[in-house]
Amino acid sequence: MSSQNLSMRKKRELRDGKRSEIHELEVPCVFGNRQENVKLYIGNPDHKHTPTHFQETLIKVERGGLIPKEISDGLQSIRNLAKENGVSFLELCGYAIKSLSVVKNKPNDKKES
């Protein structure tokens, strides 16, 4: 997953009387020949769908846009890793985004002459 323009915030929402955790993830999506940041809401998807399945459909049908494949594939990989290792998808997703932010913001070790 690319770290370009990614940010994530936690939200807690009530659903069926229970608290559930939702992450808001802002990603660059493609609309024709332009790119626009779109907020995706990542929760714990059922096993039949990818983490962005319904939002991908909505963005494509309603707005004619696409979520970059590297974002969708990256989230699916994180989900698979979480399942294989018995950890929370949302926690692993948050860790991955924070790690990408650190790498992106790390100062360059090379000195320019």
Automatic annotation (TrEMBL):
Top-level division of the source organism's lineage: Bacteria
Naturally occurring in which organism (per UniProt): Candidatus Cyrtobacter comes
Name this protein carries in UniProt: DUF2610 domain-containing protein
Pfam families in alphabetical order: DUF2610
